Amino acid sequence: MRNLNAENITDAVIEQFSGCKDERLKSVLNSLVSHLHAFLRDVEPTEQEWTDAIDFLTRTGQMCDDKRQEFILLSDTLGVTMLVDAINHQTSNPQITESTVLGPFYVADPPEAGQGDAIDWGVEGEPFFVEGRVLDDQNKPLANVVMDVWQSDSEGFYDVQKELDSASLRARFKTDEQGRFAFWTVTPSPYPIPTDGPVGKMLELTGRHPYRPAHVHFMLITEGYETLVTQIFAEHDPYLDSDAVFGVKDSLVRDYQLRTPGKAPDGRDMQTPYRYLKYDFGLKAS
Ligand SMILES: [Fe+2]
């Protein structure tokens, strides 16, 4: 293993992994080295460019903490997250709700809330009532499904970006015996992904905008079914066709209906206009 050059170094590196006992790990590394070397032969970086690339990745890692995940943003904005999603969650059954990106603002174990509760703790905005059911692919209601919900406020910010004392616009619900869920929140707005890090710089240098169309995030977990990570987007949003993270699917776009004051679907007396979304989720058996 001497006198290596641009032609033979790839095989030499792959050979070094030949003793790996984990076949999956070995094949992943072989492919990674092959494609990474091919990429470098293609772009022929200068040494300064390669140093800059390593610096970019270093800064991406340094930007991460328990509330900020710059690597997820990088994966999202390069379309990698949606590619992994497409590889893992293909379905031709229209009863099964399609998945999309998790995004960087999910927080594990959000506060628990009850059927019909409001989750707009400490924030103001246009009232928004969301309800629906969780079903299997035969339209059978699924009870006790754990449903985590999280979204931005009406200015486009998540609670973790605002340094609030407690969680807001995120909660954990459980479906009832008929598979139903319901909650009050505020209407989310389109928002820019965080642009104060290396990913924002990349978007700026390449002339891309950082916006995502308005959406509510959902994660549905129950035994015997694949965990569903998805979002329901607002119809007519100006960013539906240029989502910075490539996450929009037609089946996930719904009208956030604007309703006049009066009795809301849960019987609440509304003095102001509000929005209403009804969505039934379909889970795929695992
Ligand atoms: Fe989001």
Provide a short characterization of the protein structure.
With 286 residues, this protein is α+β, with helices and mostly antiparallel strands. It is built from 7 helices and 14 strands. Strands 1, 4, 10, 13 and 14 form a 5-stranded mixed sheet that branches.
Describe this structure in words.
- Strand 7 (215-221) and strand 8 (228-234) form a beta hairpin.
- The chain contains seven helices and 14 strands.
- The protein has two domains: 1-44, no CATH class; 75-282, Protocatechuate 3,4-Dioxygenase, subunit A.
- The strands form four sheets. Strands 1, 4, 10, 13 and 14 form a five-stranded mixed beta sheet that branches. A five-stranded mixed beta sheet has the order 3-2-7-8-9, with no helix packed on it.
- It has 286 residues and is of the alpha+beta class.
- The longest helix is centred in the first third of the chain and has 21 residues, at 23-43.
- The chain binds fe (ii) ion (FE2).
